[in-house]
Specification:
It is a single chain. This protein folds into two domains: about 350 residues, TIM Barrel (Alpha-Beta Barrel); about 40 residues, no CATH class. The protein is built from nine helices and 19 strands. The strands form four sheets. Strands 8-7-6-2-1-11-12-19-18-15-16 form an eleven-stranded mixed β-sheet, sandwiched between helices. A hairpin with a 2-residue loop joins strand 4 and strand 5. Helix 2 packs parallel to helix 4.
Length: about 425
Amino acid sequence: MKTKFILTTFFSLAVCTLCAQDTRWWKGNLHTHSLWSDGDDYPEMIADWYRSNGYHFLGISDHNVLAEGERWIHLEKNAGGRKAFDRYLKHFGKEWVEHRVVDGVPQVRLKTFVEYQKKMTEPGSFLLIQSEEITDQFQGRPVHLNATNLKNHIPPQGGAGLAATLQNNIDAVLAQRKATGQPMFPHINHPNFGWALQPGDMIELKGERFFEVYNGHPAVNNYGDKDHLSTGQMWDVINAYRVGVHELPLMFGLATDDAHNYHQQAVGKSNTGRGWVMVKAKLLTPNNLIAAMEKGDFYSTSGVTLSEIQSDGKSFSFKIKAELGVTYTTWFIGSRKSFKISDDIDKRNSIKPNEAGIGEILSQSQSLEPSYKFKGDELYVRAEILSSKKKANPYVAGEYERAWLQPVKPDNF
């Protein structure tokens, strides 16, 4: 019996070790644009940049369109112009690039998703995911929602208000998921773009688990201003009410590029390499990535890298991969069960959520292995890391690298 116990214990440990070794971190960007809508480069060129710069997956999410069907555009009178075409032709060659002259007009054919996916995908190394930015509005305010791993195009659904417009588009994505059996998910894009959305528009959404806490486009106002919440503050208000009042699942935070400009790297341009997600999954497939993200097995970053994240419901800890000469400050942020609940939507959208006990700094650390022990009265705890390293090609001047870890709940909640 003793021998059997030892062998069983050894086998269990071996399986646990194997499970831990079976997953790895995959780097990806879920929000980017090409010449199929308002980007200034060809999808293959964009995919090549991400593939060549250490990314494992990419969703090119053009506005209200999937890259399908035959489409020819003016070779010179497009957002990329002759410069983009010349680079495209030089890189991929005349065997791949299709162009012609019709009635004196030079044209180039945009490759479909099926075509460029087949050319650019490297199994186990680089994956392209079909995506769309469902671009809607309510009374002139932008309401944008990304749909990742779509099978079929979804037009904007409209609605009787901001929250209703979001919900209708979310429902359309989830309906397609149910009808096709293909894993896919919606996420809310840049809520501060045009100062369009407030926490009250997102708190009670059903079926939505993700929003952009960081977006690399220079016009999206990630950090808010004196009259508007930052996206980080929004995140806390959303989750305090979702968990503490409405008993809804936590909302997770994404970092994305929202790149449109590929020929000039500069502040004021929407470039590549500004924000991404690191997903811990077994395989580089849409099914594995989506399953991991829906469990919260990922973090978002604009440069800070982690090697390990652990949470057992009693404590929350992780390890930072340090760069030489760089220091890191970690804040554990959360809301307690005793936060001041308000039925007034305007107060929920207040620019001082900390006065209501929302998004409190629960602990601060300079360690490379920060940890937090739950007290038991927290609704959730998330972590945010600020590096002393300035961001290369920042979306605003003077920006420092950061990381955002997903919120977790104590085990007694």
